[in-house]
């Protein structure tokens, strides 16, 4: 039984949608030839059905009539060859299908011709060695898969490794590394289901770090740091959902404060300064592009130029210090583009020029005639808003740095016979001055009267003053090194039966005092290094000091035995270890 379906009516005629055959009018079982059509009348697909199942050769077409794919539907035990095409008619991919899944050898092609990749499938999953190629036929990458999971390695045309990492079901996963052609690391981080996740680090081609920060589901989030090629910090701040958010600071290559901006949803005002601290430029940033009117200044405070930006593109006017027009031209994303006009101080047009950059500094090459005169003109660089870096100098205050008070303790330490408490004055990623008090009591929760006879117990305190030198905040926290001076007053007690029966039970004691110096390393973990919040401090150190020991009981061998385990050496070698949780105000 032959059936025809239509899209509807257009003009005076019907537009045929499909033609097919059924066993009878009541069964709804497709049996026989089948053809479907586009609205323009061209064939969309053609083939045969047997008992409602596609069987034999089938063809599918693009709307322009070009073949889209062609192949054979077989039973579940037989291979069928399928070919897929681009709309220009060139082969897109080809291979075998078994029971609806790709199997055996497959090849994929570029739209303009040439093999793009080739390898083997088993039950729809890549297995074995796969090779990938550039359009000129040079090998681009290779991978070794098992059940569509394997190590993928990509190459430059020179043969040097470009990137490598795990590929799962066609998506990047786990740790990936990227390289420059000089073999130095370009980037390193993790993917999860094809999206960047967690902490990533990027590097300049000289090996110095370029930037570092974290991703969540493929977009940047949290604290990000950017660096100049010389290793100095270039800029730092928070990002949220891929855009800058909150307060950002920028630094010159020398490490001196350069600029600042406070962003809200990627938008905010920006100010940049000379190394002398004088204002250099001011304007508005939106989505990392200059927006609105920007003003540029000489170091003496006079106006150097102005530019009205729309999405990072603007027409710049530069002035001599006497206020006369000096140059005009277009700035795009912080770079001079197109033809620039330069003027003499008397107002006469000097000529038309192209901008040539040398290590980021622009020079102006005349489009016609005398180039020598142009090279000698001391035109200033039109500044670009670029986030890049500086190294921490422990005793050099920073502009707008966060300073806070950290109060910390660790009640769990009572199981070891102490209760620490500390107050620290914290300078953001730079310095910390901490007063540390430790209440010593072992056993901690047992009263003196309930201690067993002839058993030592301790009561006392220690006070320490610490100085900490913080490193820059990383994903694992702020590492620091430090030193301290400390004093400990500790009393050792024991409950005994007094020889005088009229006295009965009494206590004997020995005093221990220590003066110590120690060095230590640690890690302070905070959500953000420049904001209030909960913080965790872990440290480990070693010291040296002087101990005084004095027994406060009459000479008695039995009593002395009780105190045998107490160190009586005048040399003290303290081990420092602790984990404190606190809050930064």
Description:
It comes from Splendidivirga corallicola. InterPro entries: MORN_2. With 585 residues, the chain is an all-beta fold. The chain has a domain at 403-584: Porin (Beta Barrel), CATH 2.40.160. The chain has 2 helices and 40 strands. The chain starts with a strand and ends with a strand. Residues 369-392 have low confidence and may be disordered.
Summarize the structure.
The chain has 585 residues and is mostly beta strands.
Q: What distance lies between the first and last C-alpha atoms, to the nearest angstrom? A: 83 Å
Helices, by number, come to 2
Number of strands: 40
State mean pLDDT (0 to 100 scale): 87
Q: What is the C-level CATH assignment of the domain at 403-584?
A: Mainly Beta
SS strand fraction = over 45%
Low-confidence stretches: 369-392
Give a quick account of the main beta sheet: strands, pairing sense, barrel closure: 31 strands, antiparallel
Kindly report the CATH topology of the domain at 403-584.
Answer: Porin
What class would the helix/strand composition place it in?
mainly beta
- The geometry reads as flat
For the record, the CATH architecture of the domain at 403-584 stands as Beta Barrel
Whole-angstrom Rg: 38 Å
* Oligomeric assembly: single chain
The amount of helix comes to under 10%
InterPro entries: MORN_2 (IPR011652)
Pfam families: MORN_2
Protein name: Membrane-binding protein
